[in-house]
Amino acid sequence: KWGEEKLRSMTTTDVTERFVKPETQRSKLAWCEQEASGGAVLTAEWFVSHAWKYPFLDVVSALSRHFAGSDPVVWFDILSVSQHEANVERPYEWWNSAFLNAVGLMGRVVMVLDSWSDPLTLRRAWCIFEVFACESTCS
């Protein structure tokens, strides 16, 4: 259903809109929350920082190469946060506490960069906040 052929040339945004949101439309939960009832969801050990404009399979490939030989549990935003509440306004205090605490509990962050000379990830405000969260929590 989510095979490589369907995902080829899609960005993370495209995957969210075409697959994740329709799969969770009824429950309005994060995909992981929806699937947790079957016991298939584990506690994340790594926070993944990436730009949604990257080709999705490039992000997956980069993570596969980074984690080659291991079997980590990662926190991947499109699956870990309800995409039906993506536009909910939260005060800075929430981000500075709840989000930083979550990153700190994982303790490890991996950032996907598309090029060394001008990575899109480091030009996205949200990704810069994730760097701040990583530094603030010594992750």
For this entry, give a set of tags.
single chain, mainly alpha
What would your notes on this structure say?
This protein is mainly alpha-helical and 139 residues long. It has helices at residues 4-7, 12-24, 31-36, 56-66, 77-80, 92-106, 125-136; strands spanning 46-49, 74-75, 109-111. Strands 2-1-3 form a 3-stranded parallel β-sheet. Strand 1 (46-49), helix 4 (56-66) and strand 2 form a beta-alpha-beta unit. The longest helix has 15 residues, at 92-106. The protein is globular and about 40 Å long. The model has no long low-confidence stretch (mean pLDDT 89).
Largest sheet: 3 strands, parallel
**Which stretches are poorly predicted, pLDDT < 50 over at least 5 residues?**
none
Based on DSSP secondary structure assignment, what is the total number of beta strands? 3
The end-to-end span amounts to: 35 Å
The proportion of strand residues reads 5-15%
Number of helices: 7
Shape: globular
Q: Calculate Rg over CA atoms.
A: 15 Å
Q: How would you name the oligomeric state of the polypeptide chains in this document? A: single chain
Structural class: mainly alpha
Side-by-side strand order of the widest sheet: 2-1-3
Average of pLDDT: 89
The percent of residues in helical segments reads 40-55%
Order of helices and strands: HHHEHEHHEH
